[in-house]
Amino acid sequence: MIALLVACISDQKEGDGRGPRKPLRNQTEGEERFSVNLLTLPQHCTGHHGWLASRELLIPRGKPQPQRYVRLPSALFSPPRSDAFSGAASHGDTAVTMRSTKPPGIHLFECVQGSPLSLRTCQALVLVLTFFSYSSYHAARKTTSVVKGVLDPKTSNLGLLHWPRCLNIGKLHTAETNTVLYGGWAPFDSRNGAALLGDIDLAFLAIYAIGIFFVGHIGDRVDLRILLTIGMIGTGLFTAAFGTGYWLDIHNFYYFLGIQLIAGLFQSTGWPSVVAVVGNWFGKKKRGLIMGIWNAHTSVGNISGSLIAAAFLKFGWGWSFVVPGVMIALVGLIVFLFLPAGPEATGEDDHLEDSSKNEIGTPLLEGQTEVTEKPVGFVEALRIPGVVPFALCLFFCKLVAYTFLYWLPFYISHTAVGGKYLSDSAAGALSTLFDLGGVIGGILAGHISDRLDARALTAASFTFSAMPALFFYRVYGSISLYWNTILMFVTGMLVNGPYALITTAVSADLGTHSSLRGNSRALATVTAIIDGTGSAGAAVGPLLTGYLSAKSWTAVFAMLMVAALVAGLLLSRLVMAEVSAKLESQRSAAATGLPVSSVEGA
């Protein structure tokens, strides 16, 4: 193998329009800074193909500048490979990681502006783009729950049912029961229609849960911007393909099943990618609050998806899929043009303020470089303290949350609220209050966990509190629309609070755990393990609901309360460890006369 140093010399004089660049940490007055790219090639290759990683090189003043191609032995850049990370390379090739490339939109903007983007601007851009990116994922995902009431026939009391006139759904009068059976869409208009819809949800979430493990493994090895773009455009195409069944008059169950399988695979690219990108740009300080606010994208996506799907039902249920599909594809193009996946993509790797974060801007000749840092393997990530209990806890948290995500509009439209049945459009709009409560719950959980410095204690408190909230919503939610909205909001806050905390701040904390010894290439893998395990629960919940709801909705809520209980119990050891640490800190503070915060930070 031969490693080629492809020198891309950057003129540092004032005439280049970029201004002076910040010196490297070990740069002296007698040295000049040059940008170089490290291109690693197998020895038998003749073309310029391989993994490209941008580097900074220090050259003493007066010495010759690097040539365009400098041949050096690959061993100079290839430390001994650890067995734990042997999968990073194969067949004797040098193990290197692909670094993020500068997005074309940012490159064009900097050329026009004449100066690079500041760190704060890049961080704001990352937060905004990842927020709308994952919001569009959830908007496309939410559509199915709103359209279920149209696909699946309903039987209700004739005097209490109110349907929009524009839906043009056929009626079948049944004199014996004095009910009206509204025709749906074959094959979901049969007696086991709810079970078929549950199978559709299972197919989507099962492939999502499986795919997310592979995406996390891939995400630590490729440019996250490209991975996210492919996932969003693919999601848009197959979300729209589901809706085209309306115009093509498709009634084959396996068509819809296959579309959901492929859509779930593309959807799995979203979460590991956006969490890893945000984790690359932000340190642990106030991570819970920042990511709690940022995690509102889940609820915002659910709300917008519900409103869009409900609004387009009057034109035909196919539009409820096509419009969100087009939207996520357009957002994917914006992500491709403007999202910097990491600080190195914009040259900001030397400006990050979090000293505990791995220094990804270390010079090429300083020993510890990006080239030597290999992605963490799946088994190594599982050994990080806290990953397994939080992953299992999220299994049951997402079981509860995704049952509401996929079945809440259906439940509302099939349950008399204040003596009246709501239309599918009204039920879809009303269900957004659950997600609005989830926004508040995610922010509260993140803020409380930051103040207490106790992620497990905060998450367990929310899950235990969700149990009585679920009970009261089932028993008293049908009394009136007023009580339904209040109880739905509170339930959403307590159900989505721990779900948001674990999938954001906890995943980012564990992905940069001290046991990794500064390796920053574990974030996407850890996120995938935690969220992938949770997604398995997300598949189980809606599936069981499809069968249990045919018997009794009370059985469904009993299942949800048991799941919330188990989720809290799984964190019991971590909670006791956090409480013990707090008590020990208080005792130490009392003995030394120092504030508790000083002792904890020591």
TrEMBL record:
Membrane topology label: Multi-pass membrane protein
UniProt-recorded Gene Ontology molecular function terms: transmembrane transporter activity
Main location: membrane
GO cellular component terms given for this protein: membrane
Entry-linked InterPro entries: MFS, MFS_dom, MFS_trans_sf
Domain of life: Eukaryota
Subcellular location: Membrane
An example Gene Ontology biological process: phosphate ion homeostasis
Keywords: Membrane, Sugar transport, Transmembrane, Transmembrane helix, Transport
Signal peptide residues on this chain, from the entry's feature table: none
Segments passing through the bilayer: 202-219, 226-248, 254-282, 294-313, 319-339, 387-407, 427-445, 457-476, 482-502, 522-544, 556-576
Family membership: Belongs to the major facilitator superfamily. Organophosphate:Pi antiporter (OPA) (TC 2.A.1.4) family.
Protein name (database record): Glycerol-3-phosphate transporter 1
Source organism: Panicum miliaceum
